[in-house]
Write a structure and sequence with these properties.
With about 180 residues, this protein is α+β, with helices and mostly antiparallel strands. The chain is built from five helices and eleven strands; from the N terminus they run βββααββββαβαββαβ. The strands form two sheets. The chain has an eight-stranded mixed β-sheet with strand order 9-10-8-6-5-4-3-11. Strands 2-1-7 form a three-stranded antiparallel β-sheet, covered by helices on one side. The longest helix has 15 residues. It starts with 12 loop residues before the first strand and ends with a strand.
Length: about 180
């Protein structure tokens, strides 16, 4: 389930209070013990430790820290020749549905860029798909990313083709680290 708004196209995260741009990194998280603290009870919508069983999980962090601003769980689907975004959400501090004064702008777009890169890494040229949390978000992804509503497995199922995924990757800037938690 994908539950992020694309609030601003910015190459780095933007501090919503100061306007300062903040550099980011992507860290892969493998340890379920680390992920246990990211769950529905504290604003992360699902139990991220359980997602680690069948997905790769990546965290968007402020450079040089493990200050997680968003998480994305993905799985390659070789039958569809696409990357499946299993779950995606921003931290509660960056979630406009949970917090009126969000910390950083640009988190949602960065998470989509991470998924697009993983699609390329898996040989799918950027093609990806997932399920929006609701109709409003589905329409938002269609408008912002030129996503296509496919609604086969779920009424809010959408796909982003290779061309649009590559455009997403061009906007957002972050460093991939070899670090794994």
């Amino acid at each position: 389930m994908i539950n992020v708004m694309i609030d601003e196209f910015t190459p780095c995260l933007k501090d919503s209070r100061t306007g300062e741009l903040v550099q980011t990194e992507v860290i892969q998280i493998k340890r379920k013990s680390f992920l246990k603290k990211y769950n529905a009870r504290n604003g992360w919508y699902t139990n991220w430790a359980e997602l680690a069983n069948e997905n790769e999980i990546f965290a968007l962090v402020v450079e040089g820290s493990v200050d997680i601003q968003g998480l994305v769980a993905v799985a390659p689907n070789y039958d569809m020749k696409a990357l499946y975004i299993t779950w995606m959400c921003t931290s509660p501090d960056n979630n406009k549905l949970l917090n009126d004064n969000i910390k950083y702008l640009g988190v949602g777009g960065h998470l989509f860029a991470i998924a697009a890169k993983k699609s390329v890494d898996n040989g799918f040229d950027g093609y990806l798909y997932g399920f929006a949390a609701n109709q409003e978000l589905l329409k938002h992804y269609i408008t912002v990313f030129n996503a296509e509503s496919i609604g086969i497995l779920h009424p809010y199922q959408f796909a982003i083709d290779e061309t649009n995924a590559l455009e997403i990757m061009e906007v957002y800037d972050y460093e991939w680290t070899d670090e794994k938690i």
